[in-house]
Write a structure and sequence with these properties.
Blueprint (H helix, E strand, L loop, with lengths): L1 E4 L3 H12 L4 E5 L10 E4 L1 H9 L4 H5 L2 E3 L2 E6 L4 E6 L11 E4 H16 L4 E3 L1 E8 L4 E7 L4 E6 L1 E4 L6 H6 L28 E6 L4
Parallel strand pairs: 1-2, 1-12, 2-8, 5-13
Antiparallel strand pairs: 3-7, 4-7, 5-6, 9-10, 10-11
Length: 208
């Protein structure tokens, strides 16, 4: 049995891969409910290739995102600084997707539950630490109701986010994460399609 701490995109994709090759696993997710959180992420062709290998179809991915046709850097005056095709239009064998992060997350979750059973992901269960013996690792799981359980497995993967408890225990001398000072604001608006109708556009103030 393989244990996975964290039911985000990384943890669910790992679980789908393990199920595909016949390796049993369990995913422990701290949140008590899966919700479509987040806005936009970018899936490059090499990532989409892996999703196709996992059995996802373009129709499924189209429900969560849009195949990107172009990336363009544009000044505030509307003039092009640089542009190039993306995905299959750039010669790749796989498309590139501008993906809604929450919809993509739920697509992975629903697909894993359909393939491996809903009990493969335990919600409201946080892996707080682990202990290791010669041939087994034990995950110490704390549930939302306050109960605790020790669960053994052959491997434990820490997919529990940027503030990973597993990583912190594995590398106790690692310094805390350093914030570089950049703030990125994200949002969505309804607007007429721009350029190709499926373009990723970056605005550059200094080319106004």
């Amino acid at each position: 049995m393989v244990l996975i701490a964290g039911g985000g995109i990384g943890g669910l994709t790992l679980a789908l891969t393990l199920h595909q090759i016949g390796v049993p696993c369990r995913v422990f997710e701290a949140n008590t409910e899966m919700k479509p959180l987040g806005v936009g992420i970018n899936l490059q062709p090499n990532a989409v290739r892996e999703l196709f290998d996992l059995g996802f179809t373009e129709r499924q991915l189209d429900c969560a995102g849009v195949p990107a046709k172009e990336w363009a850097l544009v000044g505030l005056n509307g003039k092009d600084v640089y542009s190039e095709p993306r995905g299959t239009l750039a010669g790749y064998n796989w498309p590139q997707y501008a993906m809604h992060r929450g919809k993509f997350h739920m697509l992975l979750y629903d697909e894993l539950c359909a393939r491996a059973g809903a009990d493969v992901v335990e919600l409201g269960a946080r892996v707080t630490r682990y202990t290791q013996a010669e041939n087994e690792v034990t995950a110490h799981v704390t549930r939302a109701d306050g109960s605790m359980e020790e669960i053994g497995g052959a491997l434990l993967f820490g997919a529990d986010g940027i503030h990973s408890t597993i990583r912190a225990q594995m590398h106790p001398n690692q310094p805390p994460i350093h914030w570089g000072g950049t703030v990125m604001w994200r949002g969505t608006v309804r607007a007429k399609p721009l350029r190709t109708g499926s373009s990723m556009v970056g605005l550059v103030p200094r080319f106004a």
